[in-house]
Specification:
Length: about 220
């Protein structure tokens, strides 16, 4: 049974700022990692497996750190708007022995603090729904990618089937993160909405594919 598509309900573009929320999110994403629920494999399968990568909204950093762990001679820069998340991601990078390959930068992806054409790839997971101006961030992705650079962005979508939403809700731990899950789904975009936005950016090519739990956007600069 598919949801009737409701208007998007804006959530936040400031990320997790309080220590309690940061720690709960870290615990949730660590569990996702341990369950094998991160999209690291999908990122690598999309062709993002070498060079210098940019992660947008890394949160506690597990996705990018797993990407580094499963690729060779790669480096990662990650930009997050939450100083609390930056701190936790740096701690997790030390746990992975990746401090030399992972660098976390406090900043707003709408005005990414990086020079033009320096990244081989860009990726993001579960942050797109927080982008209040997604067209600006997609333009920034295009700007900082080298010619032929690849990108992979995955997130929820607002029209996820209701049984899937229920499964995700009861699978989410710690339990205090469950209301945030619903808020994130309500703040997410549909594949059609994102397609219209990306068409305004001069990417060489892109695809938007729906999955049972959301959507995956891949493309090339």
């Amino acid at each position: 049974m598919r949801n009737m598509i409701q208007p998007r309900v804006f959530e936040t573009d400031h990320g997790f700022q309080g220590e309690s929320g940061v720690r709960s999110y870290d615990a949730m994403m660590r569990r996702f990692r341990d369950k094998g629920w991160l999209v690291t494999g999908s990122i690598i399968e999309s062709g993002i497996s070498s060079g210098i990568g940019l992660e947008i909204g890394p949160g506690p950093g597990y996705l990018g750190l797993e990407w580094l762990k499963h690729t060779d001679d790669t480096e990662l820069y990650a930009v997050d708007i939450s100083s609390g998340m930056i701190k936790v991601a740096q701690q997790n990078a030390a746990e992975y022995n990746m401090k030399g390959r992972a660098r976390y930068v406090l900043g707003d992806a709408k005005k990414a603090p990086f020079a033009d054409s320096i990244f081989d790839a860009a990726f993001s997971n579960y942050s797109l729904h927080e982008w209040s101006e997604p067209e600006s961030i997609f333009h920034e992705v295009r700007r900082v990618l080298k010619k032929g650079g690849r990108f992979f962005i995955s997130d929820f979508r607002r029209d996820i089937d209701l049984p899937v939403v229920s499964f995700m809700y009861y699978s989410t731990l710690p339990e205090e993160m469950r209301p945030g899950l619903i808020a994130s789904i309500n703040a997410s975009y549909t594949a059609e909405e994102i397609t219209g936005i990306i068409m305004q950016v001069d990417f060489h090519k892109f695809t938007v594919n729906e999955s049972p739990m959301g959507m995956e956007i891949t493309g090339e600069s």
